[in-house]
Amino acid sequence: MNHHPGRGPWLTSQGPNPTLTTLMHNSDTSEPTWDTVYTYTRAQAVADGIQVEVTKTAAEAGISIPVFLTRTVYESYVTVPPGVSCQDEAGRLWDILWMLRHAIRGTHGGQAYLAFALYVRNDDRAARLVKLVATCGPVDIDDPAPCITVLMPDED
Fold it and tell me: If you write DSSP's letter for every residue of 23-39 in order, what string do you get?
């Protein structure tokens, strides 16, 4: 995204919480500064249904920090599509979190972005490989504790 002095506002993305900012010129220095105009917190995203907290199940799978799924991930791979037999949401959620746990264990640490994949059956034919992304960042604007957000590869 290109930022041009004096031409804000811009929508920037810092993990799962977009922030509307505007570029201002600081007369004391030649450096531009950013003033926050609006923030959309994770708490708001959960309340609006944009994200789904799955921390309890993640803890059972061995992930020790809070975990959130975007609504797109939840609807695409946790919710059982109509007419699909032998599937339930608990099992589908477990599959995502278990594969996330194994992907995390396979890293050397210090990564803020992690791609992983699993097989999901969204019809009564063979399961297909789906790719997801996990990002690690603060729980919220006022809570710097780490958490994981699982999202589609094309989501911000």
Answer: EEE-TTSSSEEEEEEEE
Residues 29 and 69 occupy one common structural domain: no
Long-range interactions of 4-9: CB distance < 8 A, separation 24+: 5/32, 9/37
Q: Which helix (H) or strand (E) holds 56?
A: helix 55-60
Are residues 69 and 125 part of one domain?
yes
What percent of the chain is modeled with pLDDT above 70? 78
Q: Is the pLDDT of residue 79 over 50?
A: yes
Q: Is 152 exposed, middle or buried (0-12, 13-18, 19+ CB in 10 A)?
A: middle
Query: Is residue 85, in this structure, part of any structural domain at all?
Result: yes
Whether residue 48 is found in the same domain as residue 117: yes
Number of domains comprising the chain: 2
Q: How far apart are the first and last CA of the chain?
A: 13
Helix (H, G, I), strand (E, B) or coil at 68: strand
Please tell me the least confidently modeled range out of 37-41, 43-47, 140-144, 148-152.
Answer: 37-41
- Give me 17's structure tokens: 């919480």
- The pTM (predicted TM-score) of the whole model is 0.76
Do the Cβ atoms of 19 and 9 come closer than 8 Å? no
Residues β-bridged to residue 129: 119
